[in-house]
Amino acid sequence: MTHPLERAHGIVPALLTPYLDDGAPNLPELGRLTAALLERGVAGFYVGGSTGDGVMQTPQERLACIEVVVAETGGQVPVIAHVGTNATRLTLDLANRAAAAGVDAVSAILPSVPLTPAEQLDYFRTVARGCDVPFVAYNFPGRTGVNLSVEFFAALAEEPNVAGVKFTSLDMFGLQQLARIGDGRLAIWNGHDEVALAGFVSGACGAIGSTFNAAPELFIRLLEQFRTGDYDAARTTQVAVSNYVRDLVATGVLPTLRELLRLQGFAMGHSRHPLHDLDADGAARVRTLFAAHPELFTPSGH
């Protein structure tokens, strides 16, 4: 049976949100970024996640960003909308509005309030049951402080509308176990970009990540090398991936990506408060990184 999100089994950028000077989302520029990444060969888009500031935006802003990405893609690749909030009713409302806007799936991280395991499971189940499009659970222990177990996901997988997991963890043993639930019933997307190859080896169908915004070809190449069995080349590409992520971490991943996209010609605006932009020294370091690696940051490097 064909997986409902099979076309998104690949490299899926978790989109950054550009902003205007007044702090509102720059919707035309978000459309430009979407079109550029589509041109560069990505397999889908993840809108409104941690990278896109979804939980720091109003529901109206989140929906507007979703609508822009859906319109720009025009069905060429799937769009997954992150709709997680701290209240189930609000999450369901945004999920259904996103579905009406034409997304292919919705996703949610756990609320940032203490929940029992039963409450965690009920939150995901309620969203999955209450929406007409497939649901992708977002497991991010580093953000939520909760490392959801394989048994948790085995129970969640009993819900017909649960399609997969965005797995942002370095636990490759856990990823491997998730990928084996129900003979592979759940699609697992690797979420920590620095271990992309390990994620593919462990059973991930692809990856959803922030660093793809600035250098999608690097990860597309890595996945293609893995899928064709060119493992020596894949290991070499993974070294480039590790170095790239290391450089982003050194100056701060999200503000560095915002600066890299600015250098690629996008009007990204300021980070949404309380996030900060790079200082002058950090921006200078990113300019040096950009100039040193044209093969990473320009479509001609594809």
From TrEMBL:
The active site is at Y138, K166. Signal peptide: none annotated. Keywords: Lyase, Schiff base. It is an enzyme of class 4 (lyase). SUPFAM superfamilies: Aldolase (SSF51569). GO terms for molecular function: N-acetylneuraminate lyase activity. Pfam families: DHDPS (PF00701). Pyruvate binds at T51, I208. Its EC number is 4.1.3.3. Belongs to the DapA family. This is N-acetylneuraminate lyase. It comes from Occultella aeris.
